[in-house]
Every structure is written in structure tokens, then in C-alpha cells.
Design goal:
Elements lengths: L3 E7 L2 H10 L3 E3 L7 E5 L4 E7 H4 L18 E4 L3 H13 L9 E2 L3 E7 L5 E7 L1 H6 L1 H10 L1
Parallel strand pairs: 1-4, 5-8
Antiparallel strand pairs: 2-3, 3-4, 6-7, 7-8
Length: 145
């Protein structure tokens, strides 16, 4: 089984732990200490939130400021459109921001959430039929109905 570990820097580890647990994530205490927190999204997806100082020990590259530079767009699926809205509301209540309007394509619904450090995540729902058939076939069937 493949697992995904996304490493992101933070200026305030305690704030990040509180933020991500407010979204419904758990912390893995075996990989959480004063330098890092293992944020558990699912059995296969984890964020390693690292202090900037500790993050710097893993790379010689300069940090990009996530408030002003995009390097990657992470998208995490939710079971329903309402689940997307709920996690966005929880993130905003915990100190995050939700820039822009929801993207509603009928077969797919997505919203962006920015954490207090500026790291962004998109949460999305896709109609299971559209995921199985592809968006064009799904939309063609919808138009015929």
C-alpha cells in the first residue's frame, strides 16, 4: 500500500496542531514532538507539519512563502458536497481563510482553504458516476436526461 506524506513548514507548531485537529484530523503521537506533528487525514494520507527550522534540515533550497507563491495544489476528496462545506467552515473557524468562490462544475465541487501559515488545500467532491465514466461522458448523459 502506498502512503502519502506531505511535509509543510509552520511558524507556530502548536497553532498548526490545533488548526488541523479542528478540521477533524488526529495527531500520531509516535511522530509528534517539539519539531514536528504528524497530522493523520486517513490511513494513507499524512501531513508532517514541521517547524521552519526543522524543515530546513531536509533541504538546501530556499523556502517559498506559501502566502505569495504556489508550488503545488493539494486536493483532498470528501464524501459529499456538504462535507466539503463543513471542513471549510471548520477551517475558517479555526483561523484559516477560504479564498474565492466555490468551483461548481455539476459533477465536481471544490473549495480552497488556507491554513494560518498560508499553506493551501483544496477540498473536493466528485460525483461517483462522473469519476467512473469521466466528466465528458457523465455530462453528455446528464444533458440527454
Amino acid at each position: 500500500m502506498t502512503h502519502i506524506f506531505v511535509n509543510i513548514p509552520t511558524n507556530d507548531l502548536e497553532r498548526s496542531k490545533a488548526y488541523y485537529t479542528a478540521l477533524g484530523c488526529e495527531l500520531n503521537p509516535l511522530f509528534t514532538d517539539d519539531n514536528a506533528a504528524c497530522i493523520v487525514w486517513s490511513d494513507q494520507i499524512f501531513f508532517m507539519v514541521l517547524t521552519r527550522e526543522y524543515f530546513a534540515t531536509f533541504t538546501d533550497k530556499e523556502f517559498a512563502d506559501p502566502r505569495t507563491h504556489a508550488q503545488v495544489l493539494l486536493s483532498i476528496s470528501r464524501e459529499t458536497r456538504e462535507d466539503v462545506d463543513r471542513i471549510i467552515e471548520a477551517g475558517v473557524a479555526a483561523g484559516g481563510t477560504a479564498p474565492g468562490e466555490p468551483q461548481d462544475f455539476g459533477f465536481m465541487y471544490a473549495r480552497d482553504l488556507i491554513d494560518p501559515d498560508g499553506n493551501g488545500i483544496q477540498f473536493m467532491w466528485m460525483d461517483p458516476e462522473a469519476a467512473a465514466k469521466g466528466p465528458e461522458a457523465f455530462m453528455a448523459e446528464q444533458a440527454q436526461a
